Amino acid sequence: MLFTNKNNQPLAKPSFRAWWGWLLLGCSLFLVGCDEVLPTGYAKWMQGTSVNGNTIFQTLMRSDPSFTVTTRDEVTPRLQERGDCFLWFPDRLISPSEREIEWFEDWLTEKDDRVMVYVGRSYDAAESYWSQAIPMIPAQRQNVRSEMEYRRAQDRIYYDSLLKGVPKEEINPWYTSLPSGRPIGDPIAQNYLRGSQEWTKGLLPKDLHVVADRKMIPPLDAEVLLALDGEVIVSRVSYQTFEGGKSHLILVSNGSFLLNLPLVNSTNRELATRLLDEIERLRKDQPTTAVFLESGAGGLTIRDRSTPPEVQQSWSFFSEPPLDLIFMQIALVGIFFIFSRWPIFGRPRKEEEASLTDFGRHVKAIGDLLRRAEKTGYAQQRLYHYRQTFHKDREFEPLPTEDSDEPAIPDPLPKQPKREPSPFDRVQIPGDEEEELWRKS
Question: Are 385 and 396 in contact (CB under 8 A)?
Fold first, then answer.
């Protein structure tokens, strides 16, 4: 049965995953017909339409409640402590470096029941796509076939560069890599099938369509889980841990049954499901934090405690999704608000105009100037001059000199009895003596 777990029970929504694969293939055909480049990014979660992506496999894993799935492009001490299962899809054919192998082996031997899945790169789904899509084009549309052949050649250039950069025989502690001896893109012969019962039960050799442009030969102590026509497809290596138990390394020759385009095939989806069941068996049905690792031609970035951390700016987290989109929208709203408040950009507002006929402002200004001069005698002289000029019918006593001890001139008006203030009285400004004297006169 397709999409079954270890208890032979179907997983939820198998038809959805099947339709996703067909939708991917249909979208790819549509894009090619619309003069677009075929997406071929390798094993990237964000490249959901790529024929070489692993989005469908990750979605299959995320649908299982026993897995908590995340994606990273580097390994850190925090992942080393919290990760229970790593799934590495390197975008290069050369072997892992000594540092990469040492890091993962240290991680495997640290605790029990850890699982590492390494998927080789000796398969390119773009070649499989073109080999299936081009024959579907009618002979009458020769121009379309020529265009597709041209794009097939372009995609082939990149994959050929990966193959040519690998030595004929490559040996590392995990596996030995050798040429397959078949033309690029040709599947493995479907003569006979062998492996563990969990992997081979219910499968026939003719149902498998596995492409491997290089052979991945595991160590002698490895357990072969699945082999087709004598060529190992999936194997497992066990490591003794410091806790006395075991952890496991699963070697998958390539992604010919794990990437987006191959998962259109129902048998490949069954193999992908059995890989997840294998991880659950090795994890003994414990909740698993699974981490998909993405790396390019430069290898995997490893950060440990001896690696000096990068200097992070205080605002660097604004550039991380989804905060980058959130704060960008907030910034746009803030810019519009600022423009709306600036006088040159905002709504027109009428300023208060100063009155040119308010004589009281003139009197107040003169009083302020006299107060700032701090010359009492000079201020009294100005008042005396004002009275002599504008009130000649009244007699005023002469002003005392500044050196005399005589008091300041009295008010010429008779003193009025005190009365209660009236709302019709003019409000006095404190210190505005000249204006008050002018009002009384």
Answer: no
Peptide bond preceding 322: is omega within 30 degrees of 0, i.e. cis? yes
Cα–Cα distance between 38 and 31 in angstroms, integer?
7
Return d(Cα 146, Cα 183) in angstroms, integer.
22
SS3 string, 130-160, reads HHHHHHHCCCCCHHHHHHHHHHHHHHHHHHH
The candidate with the shortest Cα–Cα distance to 229, out of 249, 248, 253, 251, is: 253
Contact status, residue 88 vs residue 116, Cβ threshold 8 Å: yes
Pairing of strands 170-171, 176-179: antiparallel
Judged by DSSP in three states, 248 sits in strand
Quick: pLDDT tens for 376-406: 878 888 777 777 777 766 666 666 655 444 4
- According to DSSP, residue 244 is labeled S
Tell me whether residue 339 is exposed, middle or buried, using C-beta atoms within 10 angstroms of its C-beta: 0 to 12, 13 to 18, 19 or more: exposed
- Percent composition of the chain: helix, strand, coil (DSSP 3-state, to 5): 40, 15, 45
pLDDT score at 23: 47
Determine the 3-state secondary structure of 352 from DSSP.
Answer: coil
Give the residue from 187, 273, 199, 285 showing the smallest Cα distance to 236: 199
- Residue 117 contacts by C-beta under 8 Å, 6 or more apart in sequence? 85, 86, 87, 88, 250, 252, 275, 279
Residue 18 is predicted with a pLDDT of: 43
Q: Give yes or no for a contact between 16 and 30, defined as CB atoms under 8 angstroms apart.
A: no
Below-50 pLDDT ranges, the chain:
1-6, 9-35, 403-415, 427-431
Closest CA to 97 of 161, 179, 174: 174
Residue at token pair 């040996």: 171
* Distances 313 to 49, 317, 319 between C-alpha atoms, Å: 34, 8, 11
| Sheet strands (E) in 140-230 | 170-171, 176-179, 193-195, 214-217, 223-228
In Å, the largest CA–CA distance within the chain is 138
Q: Which two tokens stand for residue 250?
A: 């699963």
pLDDT tens for each residue of 85-112: 999 999 888 889 999 999 999 999 999 9
